[in-house]
Amino acid sequence: MEILMQKGMGREGEFELYIGTDFLTVNQRKRLVRGLTASVSNQNNSKKSQNIGNINFDPADIAHQEDLMNAKNLTIYKK
């Protein structure tokens, strides 16, 4: 699995995270999306202060390799 993180998206501590799912089966991809959706929802609902930012997750927002080729501040983590 390949995880890409792009820092410096505007606000302090703001970043985008891209997860490569090319080698996952359809079922594995669906389970990953369900798990991420649940985790994001739990995190946003359990924060103690309104001053703490929200996590956004859009499973329909798909980034392709061409989109990431020219991205700045991109760090690649391979597992």
Please outline what is shown here.
The chain is of the alpha+beta class. It has a domain at 1-22 and 53-78.
Keywords summarizing the entry:
single chain, 79 residues, alpha+beta, 3-stranded antiparallel β-sheet, 2 helices, 3 strands, 33% helix
What does this 3D model show about the protein?
There is one protein chain. By secondary structure, the chain is an alpha+beta fold. The chain has a domain at 1-22 and 53-78. The protein is built from two helices and three strands; from the N terminus they run E-E-H-H-E. Strands 2-1-3 form a three-stranded antiparallel beta sheet, with no helix packed on it. A hairpin with a 7-residue loop joins strand 1 (2-7) and strand 2. The longest helix has 21 residues, at 26-46. It is flat and about 35 Å long.
Protein topology:
Blueprint lengths: L1 E6 L7 E6 L5 H21 L18 H5 L4 E5 L1
Antiparallel strand pairs: 1-2, 1-3
Spatial gap, N to C terminus = 5 Å
Low-confidence stretches: none
Structural class by sheet pairing and helices: alpha+beta
Number of strands: 3
Taking Cα atoms only, what radius of gyration do you get, to the nearest Å?
A: 14 Å
Q: Give the count of helical stretches.
A: 2
Inertia-based shape = flat
Percent of residues in beta strands: 15-25%
Report the sheet with the most strands, covering strand number, pairing sense and barrel closure: 3 strands, antiparallel
List the helices and strands in order.
EEHHE
How are strands sequenced across the largest beta sheet?
A: 2-1-3
Mean pLDDT, rounded to whole units? 81
Fraction of residues in helices? 25-40%
